[in-house]
Amino acid sequence: MTISHLDVNGRRYAWPTAPVVGLCIDGSQPAYDGAPGYIEEAVAAGVAPFFGSMMANGTSRLGDCVVPSFTNPNNLSIVTGRPPSVHGICGNFFYDPESNTEVMMNDPALMRAGTLFHAFQTAGAKIAAITAKDKLRRLLAHGLEFGKDGAICFSAEHADQASLDEHGIDGLLGLVGLPVPDVYSADLSEFVMAAGVKIMDRYRPDIMYLSTTDYIQHKHAPGTPVANQFYAMMDGYLTELDAAGAVIVVTADHGMNAKHGADGAPDVLFLQDLLDHDIGAGAARVILPITDPYVAHHGALGSYATIYLGDTIDRDQVMARLADRPGIALVLSCEAAAARFELPADRLGDIVVIGEQSKVLGTSPDRHDVSGLTEPLRSHGGLTEQKVPVMMNRPTGRPDGDGLRNFDIFHMALNEAAL
After folding, report:
1. Which fold has domain 268-379?
2. Superfamily of chain region 5-256+381-416
3. Are 329 and 354 in contact (CB under 8 A)?
4. Model confidence, pTM
5. pLDDT tens profile 59-109
6. 3-state secondary structure of 351
């Protein structure tokens, strides 16, 4: 029986008639509100002709990412086609009150919805998902079947450990022709791109997902030589995927902004210290959902935090005091944040706090290792990093200004691309 479409998480997707490649460029701030964008600057410098062709002849729009503008919630939204209120992943890190532990959100058991990849593989499609860091790989692989003729899903970080039974591929380093990259390098993302080209050539998956790391964007602003070189690298591999006949859709999991003062030091509001002073030591617990195992380039400092309060603390009073603090853009109850940002209310604590564009939120100075910040801090997490590029190497009939989200890219590629 010929399959014409699939219904996944309440959305309908057409069956692919050409290979579809979705690329999530971690931290790719677009040109917006007078500020420069990474892709636009690389195109203007003449080093990214394929991106330029998408802007001129395909689709190039601004979209919104999920808030909090962090990696895990946005990648999971992209691969499920739905917001965190559906799939359940609302940060890289969260507090589990039932076990009284702070844990990484990289366990598939925390997911509340299946991925597009699982649904399409079950229906007979060939799937490949390649991510830079292994923290995301387990979530992307949720529900997939591996082994001979199964799905392919691995991280560049652990490329040397890829096996047929667990990742759907072996001999990976020989296939790609690159060594295992350093996790804190642009090479990590290049391995993702190079592997995507090789796997398209050898296996020709129906749906492929490539997810990079924001190591470069945390350190280098749009238009700088290093940033332009990074986008030129991706441009070259995308050119090869385009030549292979793929429908290519590109977005970002979040943007990126400078978060430092004139002296170059991080511009931080330490919420745990502030609350310990205001309402008593231990009366509140501050959780920073940007936290992950790879903090050298951001020191676990982002512009979004959640707060858990003790039972005797007046939430309204705490919210009012926080709202008066310089550097805080928004203070919301968990119920209001869940409604506004489509988040799972049971994983938000009592209060959500979002910093202004240049401000990051911390706990206490002694809990943040910023020794790895070799350049002034650039980070993300808030509303000012919500705008992202949404691009495709085909035109779309979708009207402009219709509330485009980064998690619409597979819907665009499968339903809207002019083939």
Report:
1. Gyrase A; domain 2 (3.30.1360)
2. Alkaline Phosphatase, subunit A (3.40.720.10)
3. yes
4. 0.95
5. 999 999 999 999 999 999 999 999 999 999 998 888 888 888 888 888 999
6. strand
